[in-house]
Description:
By secondary structure, this protein is an all-alpha fold.
Amino acid sequence: MSASGRSAGPEVIWARPERAGRGPRPTHSRAEIAAAAVRIADAEGIDAVSMRRVAAEIGCATMSLYNYVPRKEDLYELMVDAVSAEHDLPAAPSGDWRADMLLLARQGRELMHRHPWLPALMSPVFGFTPNVLRYLEWGLAALDGLDVPYGTKMELIAMLNGIVTTYVRNEVAMAERERTSPYPPGAELAARGAYLGQVVAGGDYPHLAAAFMEDPGPIDYDAFFERALTRVLDGFARA
Length: 239
């Protein structure tokens, strides 16, 4: 340890004991701190989460909070772990690996919509918290019926998570744009669609014009999501 009390090298918050073997019981718990940060992020977005705000939320001094959470990155990790506990996984996989992967992806989408800030924190940096490890262990158990190496199974889970994260990030961004637009609902999207139609009709984009001529109608985003997942699973099944 350095003279300042900080570790001289990288430190994982889960490797730090939450409570020392001796001394008084801590006034606050990691679960309480994480819940406060999640409440702030749910209400105001991830940019509103700061050590000062969280300290005020739980009723302690900002510098005291650093005794529990040394860095803001550790706070983010606590948040990711806290919401990852919301996955409602069966006691055991069903035996149908495709169905189980779809279950994980659908639950992931629901989870990210409940916590729209979560896609911004989806990173391998925060990928090994206790509840994320529980999720990964269940996912790998669900893939027992897929005859590929464990590395390939991890790639499958990562790819599905990537699809879900990107998809929800776009859904959240579109909803936020619609919510903050000064125009009536759908007006901006309609104006952009009309402009795009005019540009494509000019002849410079023949492939786009051919695509638009198919006129599939309004996009069913739920069906699009399911097709994307199914195509990825099809690829791994062929492997």
